[in-house]
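If you are new to this repository, start here. Below is one unmodified record pulled from the training split, so you can see the exact layout before writing a loader.
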Amino acid sequence: MKIFNFSFLVLLYCYLTSSGATGKNLCTSANFQTVGRVVHGEARGESFTGQLAVAYTIVNRVNHGGYPNTLNKVVYQRYSGGYQYNTLSEPRHDRAWATSKANNDSTYRRAILAAKDALCGYRSDPTGCATDYCAYDPCSATRSNRYWDVYNKRKIGNHWFVCRSPK
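And here is the target side for that same chain:
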């Protein structure tokens, strides 16, 4: 009986930690790279909490009815000729990521750790539910509009994070 209970607990632990914060299987090496790239470009100079907050905006969008429901569709969603996550439209950010990754430097390792912690649910979401953020407030991402109400606005590092609900 004890072997069964132990085995069950191990399986439950593996399921919970591999499903991440979402119940969807986001906790994969490929996703760590994808989200790490965004974190590196958007929040490289931020505290670890600020980097984790950026990573969680992706997780929260995957789980939000107003955004695509897969990680790649969220990350690579286009708008106004560029990507939702502006860093992906910046060739110099691509080069900085490639250099950091090739050197396995601390900025690369921290971005990957923030991505992993958010995607696997190892650390809690410092934003509570944010899907959007901006380096200044107000901006279009931090204001309510005819489609969305903004709530739970908070500043983490140099970014303002907001949660959204449909009107």
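Two things worth knowing about this chain: Residues 2-125 form a domain with the Arc Repressor Mutant, subunit A fold (CATH 1.10.10.2520). The chain has one domain: 2-125.
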